[in-house]
Design goal:
Blueprint lengths: L6 E10 L2 E11 L4 E5 L6 H9 L6 E6 L4 H8 L3 E4 L11 H12 L6 H7 L15 H12 L6 E5 L7 H18 L2 E5 L3 H7 L2 E6 L2 E7 L6 H13 L4
Parallel strand pairs: 3-7, 3-8, 5-6, 6-7
Antiparallel strand pairs: 1-2, 1-4, 8-9
């Protein structure tokens, strides 16, 4: 039996006030890969992420998650997704543990994995400390723990290392690697920090000016300098 791909986009566009800002996009993500998602400011990355996560609807085309389409199918499929936004969405007056437990209640996810997630992101000793007293690095690690609740099969991460010090960046990197390796989780990681993407990505999805410039394996760009060169070639249209 063929396993459905985590994500397929078919002719997806997005228009605001009659102006098309994204698409048409045809994109397929394969299971078990770590996709680095890159593009210049205004390229359409955030718009595409909102469409994938369900906070925006495409103007045309279709979104398919784990083989599911339509409003009901996508709503069910998104329970198999995790999302780490570019800005923390944690409840500031709750502890890290309480934040995870509340999300479990909201989403109908078993709370049995909370302790393991707190340990995995290095917040097991935070105790009853409220999130409002957390450093930026602690907040981002909590956001990652929330994204991993329920053992999702696809995790979308929007600028996950923003505000992190070098140690925090390495911790996030290693956790993504470990979850991908041990659980086979698919990641779509949007970031402007190309050297960091070069450390974790197995493939790259490149967008520019609202269009898909290309999807290429990481072996075609070894290291940050090669990734920058590859990005330039794709955007100029030399490698389609």
């Amino acid at each position: 039996m063929t396993t459905a791909m985590p994500l397929r986009l078919h002719g997806v566009t997005k228009a605001y006030r009659g102006r098309t800002v994204l698409g048409p996009i045809d994109l397929t993500l394969e299971a078990g890969r770590v996709y680095g998602f890159i593009g210049e400011n205004g390229a359409g990355k955030s718009t595409l992420i909102r469409i994938v996560t369900g906070t925006a609807s495409p103007s045309s085309g279709s979104v398919e998650l784990f083989g599911e389409r339509g409003r009901r199918g996508l709503a069910a499929a998104r329970r198999r997704m995790g999302y780490m936004p570019d800005a923390s969405s944690a409840y500031p007056d709750l502890s890290a543990r309480a934040n995870l437990e509340v999300r479990c209640l909201e989403w109908g996810v078993p709370a049995s994995g909370v302790d393991g997630l707190l340990e995995a992101v290095g917040l097991e000793t935070a105790g009853k400390k409220r999130v409002r007293a957390f450093s930026m690095g602690m907040r981002r690690r909590l956001d990652l723990a929330v994204a991993l609740l329920g053992d999702p099969e696809l995790v979308v991460m929007d600028e996950p290392v923003n505000g992190l010090d070098p140690t925090g960046i390495i911790e996030v990197r290693e956790l993504v690697r470990r979850v991908n390796r041990e659980r086979g989780t698919t990641f779509l990681v949007s970031s402007h920090i190309l050297p960091e993407l070069a450390e974790v990505a197995t493939d790259y999805v490149v967008v520019s000016q609202g269009r898909l410039a290309g999807t290429v394996p990481a072996r075609d760009a070894v290291g940050a300098a090669s990734l920058e060169a590859l990005y330039g070639r794709l955007v100029r249209g030399g490698d389609r």
